[in-house]
């Protein structure tokens, strides 16, 4: 398929759902920090990041259907988000490392989609990459503070780096409809994340990111146990009052 050819509807749907579900699910996870963030400033920062991601999700899901139905009425196996974004928040360090891994990937991906100059995701990517640059910077600054902070903050951040590492390989599984060099994207991601972790005096995990001992089948609709509980909470109000307006 050349750049001048139209994107088939089925392929376009796969890409929109993958990107949209990533943003939607991570937005909800970050929203769970409301009332629980360690300081008031972070309450606002995490809420703003969540709202940015929710805005991206609305645009992407509306490309392929009714955004509310897709968010609140689909069953678990119909979601196409990567397993990384559905991981529970854990402590603050865990949330920050999850954000570092994902926002670095998202910035690099959207930067490539925006630079392509054409395609149905170009406009969204050009706007979103500016938002995601802030998300990445926020995660980087906190990774540096926590990793190179106290012995306890270093321990917790290193633990998060290792625990989440096996979920990162799935980020670079090709998605139909997204014309990017996935190997190059992964190489750039690894270089960027490694640089941040080393500056934060953290050890880059040596566990597998692909293969039998890695994780990641979210793009195929297979999710971790915690996702089902999160989804039930996210969809409860809409399913309890179908057709309600506010």
Any descriptors?
single chain; 9 helices; disordered N terminus; mainly alpha; 63% helix; 246 residues
Helix content: 55-70%
Unreliable spans:
1-11
User: Overall pLDDT, averaged?
Assistant: 91
Helix tally equals 9
What proportion strand? under 5%
What is the number of E strands? 0
Report the principal-axis shape. globular
Radius of gyration, taken over Cα atoms and rounded to an integer in Å: 18 Å
- The end-to-end distance, rounded to whole angstroms, is 45 Å
Q: Give the SSE order as H and E letters.
A: HHHHHHHHH
Describe this structure in words.
Helices cover 63% and strands 0% of the residues. The protein has 246 residues and is mainly α. Helix 1 (9-31) packs antiparallel against helix 2, helix 2 (40-62) runs antiparallel to helix 6 (122-147) and helix 5 runs antiparallel to helix 8 (182-199). It is globular and about 50 Å long. The N and C termini lie far apart (45 Å).
Offer a quick outline of the entry.
The protein is mainly α and 246 residues long.
List the helices and strands and how they pair.
Elements: H1 9-31, H2 40-62, H3 67-72, H4 83-86, H5 92-115, H6 122-147, H7 151-165, H8 182-199, H9 225-240
Helix pairs in contact: 1-2, 2-6, 5-6, 5-7, 5-8
